[in-house]
Amino acid sequence: MAIGNTGFSLRQIGQQGGDGPAAWLVDDPDAQTQTVDGWNPTDGHLVAIGGPGSGTSSTLAAVVLDLCRRHRVDDLHLQILDLDSGLLSPLLGLPHVGSVIGPTDADRRTRLLRLLDEEIVARRSGVVAAAPEIVLVIDDLAGLSRAHDPVRDHEPHDRLSRIWSDGPTVGVRVAASVTRAADLGPDQAATSTVPPEDRSEAHRR
Question: DSSP secondary structure string, 59-84?
């Protein structure tokens, strides 16, 4: 199956999706049909893989809009690291979105990852009881290594690694894009599975 280039608007996809996930259209050539599909954070992490111009940024934007459509603000918080083209900056206007941090704002990016890491520790220890789902959206995961040298500035990488490994059990998950599967770290790749093929080469944990 593959995402269809149908020209459907997000509103049309949402109308077809009803209350369920509706971020993309999936082609089924054998049945000559298209079905609406999307991502539930409870399924685990999401990684969209594709080169420049393949639509991974648009896929993440569609996922964000769909999550906002289906969740109350009190139930879902979104934080965005836009390390690519800046296409996600308009999403800051959504009530669910706490921040959109661009590629040049290293200090804010480090503080956000620290905050999320500490939030996970608090949730795992039972300090935080009822808490909203949190989704960290990262457009161009490999851009983190360009912005923060993994040897000299390793804190963001350490924080993200713990967010990735420990977050799902306490309601903190990641939706990211990469240009190639090799951009995923060993632990990230080991915890990713492949849904129906060619869904913008999307992987879900």
Answer: HHHHHHHHHHHHS-GGGEEEEEEE-S
Which residues are 137's β-sheet partners? 80, 175
Whole-prediction pTM: 0.82
User: Phi then psi for 28, rounded to 5 degrees?
Assistant: -120, 90
Q: Please, which residues have CB within 8 angstroms of residue 59's CB and are 6 or more apart in sequence?
A: 23, 24, 48, 177, 200, 202
Coil, strand or helix at 51:
coil
Between CA 78 and CA 40, with CA 4 as vertex, the angle to 5 degrees is 30
79 within 8 A of 91, measured Cβ to Cβ: no
C-alpha to C-alpha distance for 121 and 103, rounded to whole angstroms: 26
Pairing of strands 76-82, 2-3: unpaired
Q: Of the candidates 107, 201, 118, which has an alpha carbon nearest to the alpha carbon of residue 167? A: 118
Residue that has been written with the tokens 């804190």 in this structure: 155
**The two structure tokens encoding residue 143:** 């851009």
Q: In what order do the strands lie in the sheet with 202-204?
A: 97-101, 76-82, 133-139, 172-178, 46-49, 202-204
The whole-number mean pLDDT for each consecutive block of 10 residues of the chain, a chain of 205 residues, reads: 33 50 70 79 88 86 91 96 90 95 95 97 86 95 90 93 94 92 73 43 46
